[in-house]
Amino acid sequence: MSQVAHDRLLLGRAAVLSPSEAGRLLPVERVKAKAWLEEMGLVRILCGKEVVIWGDVLDALRAVGGEIRLASPKGPPEGLRLAALD
Question: What is the per-residue pLDDT across 28-45, written as a single tens digit (0 to 9) for each?
């Protein structure tokens, strides 16, 4: 098992990551992963820093279903609720 796969399995849904860290854990090129995170509205600002909640990424992947492309509509899929930061 690769280190990335191992790291992905250890993460809890509440893990707060940088967009770069979250992109590293997705099985696509990091630049494309970060662009997808931004397009899906999964990158948030916490005290001036960009963050991603890993559970939101998992929920977005599950909600989109089928093939995931960068040309997806902006924002999370309808019905997807993002975790609160407070």
Answer: 898 999 999 999 999 999
The number of domains in the chain is: 1
Q: Is residue 57 part of a domain?
A: yes
Q: In this structure, is residue 85 part of a structural domain?
A: no
- Domain of 31, in residue numbers: 3-64
Q: Is there a domain that residue 71 lies in?
A: no
Q: Which residues contact 28 (CB under 8 A, 6 or more apart)?
A: 36
Residues contacting residue 44 through CB under 8 Å, at least 6 positions apart:
50, 51, 52, 53, 82, 85
59: helix, coil or strand? helix
* Whether the predicted pLDDT of 7 surpasses 60: yes
